[in-house]
Amino acid sequence: MTGVIFLQKNKFDIYTMPPGRVSEFLFVPEVIKELDIIDRDLLDNLVKLFVTNNKIPACNLVIIIAENACFTRDIQLQSPDSEVAVEDIAKEFVDSVPYEKIASRNFPLQRGIRAFAVNEDFYLGIVSAFEKMGFKIDGVYPGLAFGNLIGKDFVLSSSNSELVLSTARSQGKYNLLLPEERAENEQEDHTVGEGVSNAPEQVDDYVIEKEEPVRKKSNKRLFLMIGVFLVLIIILIITILNQS
What we know:
Elements: E1 2-7, E2 11-16, E3 21-26, E4 32-33, E5 36-37, H1 40-53, E6 60-65, E7 71-76, H2 83-96, E8 102-109, E9 112-119, H3 120-131, E10 136-142, H4 158-168, H5 180-184, H6 211-243
Parallel strand pairs: 1-6, 6-10
Antiparallel strand pairs: 1-2, 2-3, 4-5, 7-9, 8-9
Helix pairs in contact: 1-3
């Protein structure tokens, strides 16, 4: 059994079966304000109370991020040679989003891309609150990944939740719970319903691998030690020769 959370700027709606209806959770400024979590402990407690009062059973969930809960920018491709420049502009846009940790994806347009960015802590706070209640989060997806199905006027309902879930199964590359590099390699038949126990932790885009520089540093230190040893040998030989 899988349910849907539609995460918006000022609230989230959730549909599961049972209870077979949409329940609304409104954000209060003391907990979430301007797409940022103010008090995570209070959020956990309020989600627990919300789940209990609405008799929502623990199940697998898919989270969809609404258009008003993220940042987007359309970047036009001026010429075939400007593709790299478009990617650079998208990265600059993502870097300008005023949060410490940003998750991002690029969506293809007819002539260019639509850059998407969201505060990672915002949706991970919701993920964490539900996981503590025994739920499993199969994925977090931008609403943009669903095309015309989820637009500005989208309202979650029992009639469209199944369509959202079936569409999510083919949108693995936009799953924000996966690192972008791995998400791009996901099969188109990515299955929703396996839970988050096997999902890696979310990482920031544009992460630079750190292991190789450490290896280089170790090699440099080894060469330095060998050099010092050779110098000491030479000094010892010269000292012996002078004494003889």
